[in-house]
Write a structure and sequence with these properties.
The complex is a heterodimer. Chain A is α/β, with parallel strands linked by helices. Chain A has 2 domains: 274 residues, 3-Layer(aba) Sandwich (Rossmann fold), CATH 3.40.50; 98 residues, Rna Polymerase Sigma Factor, Chain: A (Orthogonal Bundle), CATH 1.10.1740. Chain A contains 11 helices and 12 strands. Chain A has an 8-stranded mixed sheet with strand order 1-4-8-5-9-10-11-12, sandwiched between helices. In chain A, strands 2-3 form a two-stranded antiparallel sheet. In chain A, strands 6-7 form a two-stranded parallel ribbon. In chain A, helix 1 packs across helix 2 and helix 3 runs antiparallel to helix 4. The longest helix of chain A is centred in the last third of the chain and has 17 residues. Chain B is globular and about 50 Å long. Chain B has one domain: Rossmann fold, CATH 3.40.50. Chain B has an 8-stranded mixed sheet with strand order 3-2-1-4-5-8-6-7, sandwiched between helices. Classes of the chains: A alpha/beta, B alpha/beta.
């Protein structure tokens, strides 16, 4: 009955197991779709969990069977890459609430056999992480050498270090924050309202109809996409250039290249993403606030943590600006935690973490290799400076 | 003077800077927990981690320095000695190092107080404005000294709070620190002392390295 997961991922079915949720509900017999690369060493000390962002999935490298395109972090994960699949056992799982094979609103409700729709319980970042911990248990992995992710993946990374500190040796939260800001909640609300205003949404029950709330979801994606880019990057790429025309059309067609680009982004997104999943996952991000879960004091969340942190931000990211990372770093310092913090100079905005940024690659390579040495994973770890040269 | 506040590699004390770092490294106990404020590109921290097996952390103002440190595998955060020391808990480190950075801070007194709060032992190195070449240059030309080691214009220098060894020791005492030992560097010459800064020390040192301990209880 489970929505069929794309071929290349594995699905773990937690039969007879219940995932208790922060919102008070529970998910029974839940599924987690994931991909893994590399080999777990016999000491089980070389596992890396990669956490995906809002619209990401488990297809971190290799061809994504849903889109036919390359994996979303092909440049970072693979043989000889910073997250080296020759040395590490790399896992990436679709979040709970998602639409790439893990249990989400499009999954049939166990009682009715019909898709959950809005009967799916509201989930949190903490729920996503608890589900990932269940997956590790099922795979027999006691702890993680590293948890890494950008944006919402960074939120999961931070959540891991708070909820399972003893299971995380090192953590790399990238372009993220310890809480979702008011501005970010505002953008998400615009996206959700666009979906819910689409007449094809039908209160979330569109699965039973021929239609999909594609227009609403496309608008949500268009809005969000603007927030992932910087003003400078947009202007460099598109300027005020016209699309397939010599002069202004004096109408509401896509006169400008930027309009055409956004429409394309919106339309291609609806082919791969479920509108209700978008509602649930954006909500999970809105609810994220680590300090609030620890008596209003962020440092308390990291007290006694022995995890090694590397926090990364980008200069032109206005969705998760550097100040958000600095807040996390100060809390980690106040808790006496081992932390590195790098702000990378880039004009590519929030999306920079997904793109080819040599400074990001070098930073992650250096930090991961140093962490590996600290964990006693000495085998085949070349000198980091030579590594950097090679890169 | 272009003793960059936060990057040893840019220092005009090039050869001397290496000696300065070596001298500091020798003073750090093996296996201790160390914070290097203004750690530059991580030369000293790297030396301490690999040779002294310390648990080393760094604070560095320049982003390029920080990125280089992290790529080298060092635990370093971007930050400002004037602003960010307040976020470190008390007694968090065995040793807190400030290498040729004090003179570039906005509030040297506050920085020293914060260091004394954070660490049990302090190691501070400073360029000596009392060096004979500085004194003679001012006397001879009647203008702000410009020597081999002080080669920036007065309006163009990062070193806004220069002092002599005596001045430094006065401030250290005022904030409740006692000088445990001092080492003066001039060229390749190294002189060791037990905290009493002589007239000769203050005349011949280009750089001095001090180890300081809390003399009085906190909050005096």
């Amino acid at each position: 009955m489970q929505q069929k997961a794309p071929d290349t991922s594995k699905v773990h079915i937690f039969n007879g197991q219940t995932l208790l949720l922060d919102g008070g509900g529970a998910l029974e017999n839940f599924h987690i779709a994931y991909q893994s690369f590399g080999t777990l060493n016999k000491e089980k000390t070389n596992a890396i969990l990669v956490c995906h962002a809002l619209t990401g999935d488990q297809f971190v490298r290799g061809t994504n069977p849903i889109t036919g395109k390359a994996g979303w972090w092909e440049g970072m994960v693979g043989p000889g890459k910073p997250i080296d699949t020759d040395r590490f056992f790399v896992i990436c799982s679709n979040v709970i609430g998602g639409c790439a094979g893990s249990t989400g609103p499009a999954t049939p409700h166990p009682q009715t056999g019909k898709p959950y729709g809005l009967d799916f319980p509201v989930i949190t970042i903490g729920d996503m992480v608890r589900a990932q911990a269940c997956l590790l248990d099922a795979l027999g992995i006691p702890d993680l050498f590293c948890v890494i992710g950008g944006s919402m993946g960074g939120m999961q990374t931070l959540q891991w270090t708070c909820d399972f500190p003893e299971r995380v040796f090192s953590a790399i939260p990238i372009a993220t924050a310890a809480r979702h800001s008011s501005q970010n909640i505002a953008f998400h609300e615009v996206g959700r309202q666009a979906i819910m205003a689409d007449p094809n949404w039908h209160g979330g029950t569109y699965y039973e109809t021929d239609g999909r709330p594609s227009k609403g979801l496309a608008v949500a994606r268009m809005t969000a996409h603007i927030t992932y880019l910087s003003q400078a990057a947009l202007h460099r790429k598109f300027g005020r250039n016209l699309q397939d025309r010599e002069k202004l059309g004096f109408g509401f067609d896509a006169d400008f290249q930027i309009e055409s680009y956004l429409r394309h982004q919106g339309m291609s997104f609806v082919e791969r993403f479920d509108a209700n999943s978008y509602l649930y996952i954006t909500r999970a991000m809105d609810y994220f606030d680590i300090a609030a879960d620890h008596g209003g004091q962020l440092a308390r969340a990291f007290q006694n943590s022995r995890t090694r942190f590397c926090v990364v931000s980008f200069t032109s990211d206005w969705l998760f600006p550097t100040e958000e990372s600095v807040t996390v770093v100060r809390a980690l310092n106040a808790a006496g935690v081992d932390v590195s913090f790098v702000e990378i100079d880039s004009d590519k905005g929030h999306d920079a973490f997904l793109l080819d940024e040599p400074e990001l690659t070098n930073t992650l390579r250096g930090f991961i290799n140093a962490s590996a040495r600290a964990r006693g994973l000495h085998d085949d770890f070349p000198d980091p400076e030579k590594e950097a040269d090679r890169a | 003077m272009t003793i960059a506040p936060s990057s040893h590699q840019n220092s005009v004390y090039h050869a001397d800077a290496r000696l300065d770092l070596r001298t500091i490294a020798q003073l750090v106990p093996t296996g201790s927990k160390v914070l290097d404020i203004g750690c530059g590109n991580g030369d000293l921290l790297d030396m301490l981690v690999s040779e002294k097996n310390v648990d080393g952390r760094g604070l560095e103002l320049s982003q390029s320095g920080v990125n280089m440190c992290v790529a080298r595998g060092l635990s370093v955060v971007q930050g400002d000695a004037d602003r960010d020391l307040t976020y470190y808990p008390s007694n968090a480190f065995d040793v807190v190092i400030l290498s040729q950075t004090l003179q570039a801070t906005q509030h040297p007194r506050t920085v020293l107080l914060e260091m004394a709060r954070i660490g049990r032992q302090l190691i501070v190195s400073i360029p000596n404005f009392g060096h004979w070449s500085v004194r003679l240059d001012l006397l001879r030309r009647g203008r702000m000294p410009e020597t081999d080691t002080l080669n920036s214009k007065w309006y163009d220098t990062a070193n806004i709070h220069l002092c002599t060894l005596w001045d430094f020791v006065d401030l250290a005492r005022e904030v409740g620190l006692s000088v445990d030992q001092h080492i003066t560097l001039s060229g390749t010459k190294v002189h060791q002392g037990a905290g009493h800064i002589s007239w000769l020390d203050n005349w011949r040192a280009e750089i001095a390295v001090f180890t300081l301990l809390r003399a009085k209880p906190q909050g005096e």
